[in-house]
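Hey, I'm writing a tutorial for new members on how sequence and structure tokens pair up, and I'd like a real worked example in the thread rather than a made-up one. If someone can provide the structure for the chain below, I'll link this post from the tutorial.
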Amino acid sequence: MKIENSNDFEIAEAYWIFPKGDIYPVKMTHIRFILDNPDMFNTTKIDLLEIYKKYNEKIGWEGKAREEIMTKIID
């Protein structure tokens, strides 16, 4: 199944797997899941929006802001 979005990529089955074993399916993208559930990742919407603003990118874009957010989340 192909879905058109800001980066035009194919969506595949994906999950967030937390260190304690909790598993959450990702319905759109990993970054969208973080943006929709910031408290699960010990962050806030304001913090995430500031990172997107720093790179002058659209919210949810799969670019430099996403890279920074994902790196912080995974560390």
